[in-house]
């Protein structure tokens, strides 16, 4: 091969690579098919949020669970009559119903506009709704890339190896995020989502009782905070009991989460691990010290999260009902 044709090949290859990455997604994807989609979704989300404040964390967590399992294709929303879909997995049983409801309501609002009916995917509505709840909770607003199709497959089994556990070590968290092309910075920034919302006691009870199978407390946990958690989550607590993940500003999307970690007040072991480890501690300190830097990193990481496993062409469809394949 001549050197000239080599260069040509390399250029074509590069172009294909760039095009293949996320050329499908565009901020103005619905410009011609449903130009007002953003404001329609926003209005529906505002109404839902007014009725039910827990909509914000519920929606934010839902997109994470969707994108990490089979990509951002709303597969997490598919229901099965025989209880074999993603949301039937025990991890998903704790997903709050209000996240699903937000997307269903926003989808109904979009479909009620004549030209928009069955033009906008459930996966894109979830992405827009997530951006909206974050902004409405006091976080950054950002342009959402659009153009995802909805998947046709959802299995309980696919969840197990794709979602992180709260007792994962930093290395395991990093590995799982890296497998989706997300960096350590993305991991630390996205974990900032835990600045809003709740956790069931079972997700951290090992840290306050029987730590490392002894009758002790996780030593990375602030002791006053550990005592408070023991009060809120007694040993025989109702399994439905929840506590706020950010004890200071639980409903505001801000960088308080990182300030909590600096004080040993991260609720989950996977939260506190970000401060324990030298590799991520600098990032925690940086995000704790400057909310703007956190917001920029969060937006960048959310955009990358939103590109995972995108379906186009005949890999997907625009679902008429978000809980069922067409
Ligand atoms: C880094 C690994 C992560 C682990 C181990 C993890 C684990 C958990 C656990 C155990 C809960 C409590 C669930 C419950 O008991 O109901 C939770 C809640 C939550 N997670 Fe994560 N998560 C991680 C990353 C993320 C990411 C990347 C996001 C979004 C970008 C996210 C958003 C949320 C939200 C908003 C809640 C609160 C849900 C609610 O109040 O309904 N998490 N997470
Ligand atoms: C459950 O139902 C789905 C269709 O909804 C089907 O594809 C799958 O094979 C069924 N699984 C079992 C175990 O019956
Ligand atoms: C926070 O970071 C931004 C962006 O890097 C910078 O412009 C700003 O001055 C910083 N604010 C503080 C208080 O350090
Ligand atoms: C226990 C349970 O079913 N939890 C949630 C699982 O996902 C559905 C989505 O339809 C929610 O409504 C449930 O609250």
From TrEMBL:
Signal peptide, first to last residue: 1-23
GO MF assignments: heme binding; lactoperoxidase activity; metal ion binding
Binding sites annotated in the UniProt record for substrate: 164
Binding site for heme b: 194
Disulfide bonding pattern of the chain: 34-116, 67-72, 122-322, 201-233
Binding site for Ca(2+) 1: 66, 69, 71, 73, 75, 86
Pfam families in the cross-refs: peroxidase
Keyword Nucleotide-binding: no
UniProt catalytic activity: 2 a phenolic donor + H2O2 = 2 a phenolic radical donor + 2 H2O
Cofactor note: Binds 1 heme b (iron(II)-protoporphyrin IX) group per subunit.
UniProtKB keywords: Calcium, Disulfide bond, Heme, Hydrogen peroxide, Iron, Metal-binding, Oxidoreductase, Peroxidase, Secreted, Signal
Biological-process GO terms, alphabetical: hydrogen peroxide catabolic process; response to oxidative stress
Requisite cofactors: heme b; Ca(2+)
Residues the record marks as active site: 65 (proton acceptor)
Cited CDD domains: secretory_peroxidase
Gene3D superfamilies given in the database record: 1.10.520.10, Peroxidase, domain 2
Record's function text: Removal of H(2)O(2), oxidation of toxic reductants, biosynthesis and degradation of lignin, suberization, auxin catabolism, response to environmental stresses such as wounding, pathogen attack and oxidative stress. These functions might be dependent on each isozyme/isoform in each plant tissue.
Protein name: Peroxidase
